[in-house]
Amino acid sequence: VFDLIRLGHILGGPLRIRFLARRRRLVRGPIIFDFKAGRVYRSSKEDQPDLVRDMEAALKKRGKPKVVKTVEGVPPQVTHQKT
Amino acid sequence: VLLSWAVPCDSYELHEDGTADIFGAGFDTFRVESLPVDLELTILARLLLMEDEVAGLEAHILGPSGFSLRSLLIEIEADPGPNHRQGYTVNQTEAFVLEFEAPTEGVYSAEIYTDAQRGDPTAEERRRSLFFSVREGIPA
């Protein structure tokens, strides 16, 4: 059980949560969200307090990336010179 | 071996039929928290080999000062896919990762060379430069 509203706000929605969980291999099966109850389940049955803890840790890590890839361009004098 | 294309990307999936899914392609800048920093550049390259050809591919990361920060020599063997047509070139997608330490901000490049003996040595099918920047500071 965890605060879906808070986590959802950080991540931008359940799809993102599911993506993150899968990517970090925290879960294998489907993740079920119950927004009314503010709960998340794995395999539609079992509560996953460990999952919540791990995901929150993953989020904390994700919140402070050390490297971000962007599209900013490079100086034309470099790319356009013939070597 | 000739080089058809080379693209830096986040990740990829190579399929048995010779196609590939490429994710996170198109970036040209690493924004980093602080310098120096260890970086990884994943490059997916499309190679055109002759049947039974064993060829070499060289890759170098050049820093802003022009010095090589990392070099890689890759031996590639033609590995025709299930739909390969006899007598045609073997069009093969290969991936490699260049790990290097970026000491300063500036423009870097990944230089890729094939050991092809035919054609113009400066032609894009024999060598390729992929430019990228390293900048300090994570964007908001």
Characterization of the model:
The complex is a heterodimer of chains A (83) and B (140). By secondary structure, chain A is α+β, with helices and mostly antiparallel strands. In chain A, 45% of the residues lie in helices and 17% in strands. A three-stranded antiparallel sheet of chain A has the order 1-2-3, with no helix packed on it. Chain B contains no helices and ten strands. In chain B, the strands form three sheets. Chain B has a five-stranded mixed sheet, with no helix packed on it. Chain B has a three-stranded antiparallel sheet with strand order 1-5-8, with no helix packed on it. In chain B, strands 2-3 form a two-stranded antiparallel ribbon. The mean pLDDT of chain B is 90. Classes of the chains: A alpha+beta (83), B mainly beta (140). The interface between A and B is medium-sized, with 14 and 21 residues. Strand 4 of chain A pairs antiparallel with strand 4 of chain B.
